[in-house]
Specification:
Order of helices and strands: EEHHEHEHEHEEHEHEEHEHEHHHHEHEEH
CATH topology: Amidase signature (AS) enzymes
Helix content: 25-40%
CATH superfamily: Amidase signature (AS) domain
Oligomer: single chain
Number of helices: 15
CATH architecture: Alpha-Beta Complex
Structural class: alpha/beta
Distance between the termini: 26 Å
Number of strands: 15
Number of domains: 1
Mean pLDDT: 94
CATH class: Alpha Beta
Low-confidence stretches: 1-24
Strand content: 5-15%
């Protein structure tokens, strides 16, 4: 049995969290349901003196100690977490809070650089501390967030093997879906999704190249926002591809994702993609979440029908809810999907080698090249125990980014992905498109790897457009989400639609940690 032990001194107070907690860990002795609480509600309690950041942080640490043995999502705790919470409380007493995220506990996917904890991307070859915090971590601290620690991920963000198993890494082992523990949490941000669903933090940061925020959000019954490419800096995040990678918030409530995105976004001189952020991009997305946001809008419905009966039913229910909120829905099919898929992966292979080498060059105390990582894995007793490294081996032989075939593949994939959304929006005079995020989670299976049935992430991921998944329904105890996506820089729009949908269709319920089903 795995235990967390945290001993931190804050103003003379010792906190020791170890083993299962008594009572109802979802409320953690706070007098309210922590799972259901939003950031604005927590802030109101702290403003009235009915809650402190230290008490909130202790509640989450106790929750981690109580239930994460079953989920196996948190792989490192920040030894300064309670000190950061105490500093937030001191700011509040002095009337100098830093914003809506001040004092709120946040977990980070372990491909986001921090100097206080190691950053591994799940790999035993990368067990060292980076030289600096990622740019987004600095923004979280400037917003007053409390960093609780790091969560597991699919090793190398699921970009090592064609037969990989989501949620497994050599560092963290297997993360489980908290709804049904033998089911998979999906996607490389699996630890982030499972931790938020299990109420181990108010917010987790995930990253996505294609599906790795929205898929674990759908499969774990939470909200996940993949921002427009360039809205959030990638500096200090272990890469797959600078042409598609982005970090984003994962939460139990849309308003919490909106608040977190407001803190995360911003220009970074070291990330050229952030230079394109429009001058009129909103600074506070939460203020734009209107209950009637869907009223009078036209929403395209990309059903992906026929692959899964439960998904079809949940999409039908979602369409009725969207119409009840005052929107008109139009069934659509997005063009070019086969051509996008045929060109995306070969382009990513080239970009992974390029961008990983650039990252490793600035990472002290670890391997310098993809070839060194491949050799390390061959000689390690754990790394290749569940699946291989065929993607690594392909990437090691990839051509230079100046290769004309690669350049044509990237141009084709990105252009067609953008056209698939832009032209559909224009042809049907749509404000956004909604689609199923995921099919029900499959049993974790090391022999056969992941068993994806359907997903709608690629058009937004490859185009660099925003995408937000929100809980929509269930297949038995397993969550199913729907995703809202639209054009470039329309993050405020898709968040507002997701919040309005969440209001008329409050589908999320807390997990029960069932061992298995069926």
């Amino acid at each position: 049995m795995r235990f967390f032990l945290v001993i931190i001194t804050v103003a003379g107070t010792f906190f020791v969290g170890q083993g299962p907690a008594a009572g109802n860990p979802a409320s953690a002795g706070l007098g309210f349901d922590l799972d259901a609480a939003t950031i604005p509600e927590l802030q109101a309690r702290m403003d009235r003196g009915r809650l402190s950041s230290v008490r909130l942080t202790i509640a989450y640490l106790r929750r981690i100690a109580a239930v994460d043995d079953e989920v196996n999502s948190v792989i490192a705790l920040n030894p300064r977490a309670l000190a950061e919470a105490a500093a937030s409380d001191q700011r509040r007493r002095a009337g100098r809070t830093l914003g809506q995220l001040d004092g709120i506990p946040v977990l980070l996917k372990d491909n986001v650089d921090t100097v206080i904890n190691k950053t591994t991307a799940g790999s035993r070859a990368l067990r060292s501390r980076p030289a600096a915090d990622a740019h987004l971590v600095g923004r979280l601290y400037r917003g007053g967030a409390v960093i609780l620690g790091k969560v597991n991920l699919s090793e190398w963000a699921n970009f090592r093997s064609f037969r990989s198993t989501s949620g497994w890494s050599g560092v963290g082992g297997q993360t489980n879906n908290p709804y049904v523990l033998d089911r998979n949490p999906c996607g490389s941000s699996s630890g982030s999704g499972a931790a938020v669903a299990a109420t181990l933090a108010q917010v987790a940061i995930g990253t996505e190249t294609d599906g790795s925020i929205v898929c674990p959000s759908g499969a774990n019954g939470i909200v996940g926002h993949k921002p427009t490419l360039g809205l959030v800096s990638r500096t200090g995040v272990v890469p797959i591809s600078a042409d598609q990678d982005t970090a984003g918030p994962m939460t139990r409530h849309v308003v919490d994702s909106a608040i977190t995105l407001s803190v995360l976004q911003g220009r970074d001189p070291a990330d050229p993609a952030t230079r394109a952020i429009p001058a009129d991009q909103p600074r506070d997305y939460a203020r734009l979440l209107r209950p009637d946001a869907l009223r009078g809008k036209r929403i395209g419905v990309w059903r992906l029908a026929g692959a899964d009966a439960d998904v079809d039913r949940v999409v039908d229910d979602a369409v009725r809810a969207i119409r009840a909120a005052g929107a008109t829905t139009v069934d659509v099919e997005l063009p070019f999907q086969d051509e996008i898929g045929q060109n995306e992966f070969p382009a990513l292979i080239v970009e992974f080698k390029r961008d990983l080498h650039a990252y490793l060059a600035n990472r002290p105390g670890g391997p310098d090249t993809l070839d060194e990582l491949i050799e390390f894995n061959r000689n390690d007793p754990i790394e290749l125990s569940k699946f291989g490294q065929e993607i690594f081996e392909e990437a090691a032989k990839a051509p230079d980014p100046s290769d004309p075939t690669y350049r044509r593949q990237r141009e084709t994939a990105t252009t067609l992905a953008r056209r698939s959304i832009d032209e559909t929006l224009a042809a049907f005079r749509l404000d956004a498109i909604v689609a199923p995020t995921n099919s029900p989670a499959w049993k974790t299976d090391y022999a056969n790897g992941d068993a994806f049935v359907l997903g709608s992430s690629s058009p937004a991921a490859v185009s660099g457009y925003p995408n937000v998944s929100v809980p929509a329904g269930f297949a038995g105890p397993l969550p199913i989400g729907v995703s809202f996506f639209a054009g470039r820089w329309s993050d405020a729009t898709v968040l507002a639609f997701a919040a309005a949908f969440e209001r008329v269709n409050p589908a999320r319920r807390a997990p029960e940690f069932l061992p298995t089903i069926g």
